[in-house]
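seq/struct pair 1
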Amino acid sequence: TPRLAQALDDMAADDGVSCTVCHMMKPDGLGEERTWSGRPNFNGERHIYGPFADVFPRPMQMHVGYTPTQGEHIRDAGMCATCHTLFTEHHGTPFPEQTPYLEWRNSEFDPDREGNDPKAARTCQQCHMAEVGETRIARNPMGFDFGRIPKREMRSHAFVGGNAFMLDLLRVYEDELDVVAEPEALAATAEATREQLRTKTAKLTIGEP
């Protein structure tokens, strides 16, 4: 397809999804069709959105030119829908290449769906970004650690999906596919994926109709 052919020679595509792809998305239109299929609404003011209000912005402003800004939408499942609700053209007809966000919206995990139990609700982030405890933040320019910040809802950015087979293919055929990721990293992520599938996914049984 033209998109794939273009991506093969695009340095930005080769770089993958950087921090700014998610953290510069504005809340406008999240979860709506106008932002699906990789059409996010980015802010042009170099704001980096995060969930916390009490941040110290100067180091980031001075060293990378971004301003950390509170944005509760960073926890919104609609943000994930921007890339993970993907329609492609198939003989002139939109083809749903992947629709996990729409599936989630029609599941018992969507807190806004009528009849759902709010206690059972889970967003994309709550399942695919593991919660971590008290931690240190980035080191200061002199190489020293900042103090520990109190425990709050912080999540790992080692995203774990459900496709361990794809990760195994990338590791086994790394030369043929020009994979730049380390084989050990691919193996570790594949194992984390299998662990999630074993312990944190739905259990289904098929019975008589």
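seq/struct pair 2
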Amino acid sequence: MVQSVSASNSSRRMTYRQINPDFTISEVYTNKHTIKEQYKVAYTRSRLSAHSLACETGRWNRRGRGRIPLEERLSVCGQVQTEAHVITSCPLFQHLRYLHSFSNIKELFKSFPINVSCKVIYDVLSLYE
């Protein structure tokens, strides 16, 4: 399974490889934490691409109109709205990047305490629910 995910060029799998390049189980699921449940849910949704960002909602069949091409799934700033975009470059979340000093998805998921990562992801995704 790891080989098929590693070899795939689908946008979901490429994002997952950015988030979890070593294909490890997150400590959110293995250790006991005092992380709020809604933060854990947001964290899991981000790992599974089960959120309401345009990169995902554009995949859904819209009353027979089919998928929206990825290049048309835009953020309010006019860029393609992907997980990487909202976390690393969208002006809406500049304050979070400044507050926590992260610059990419891998850094957010791997270099911060898990409770901080979960909270930041919750803050990002909650704007799109």
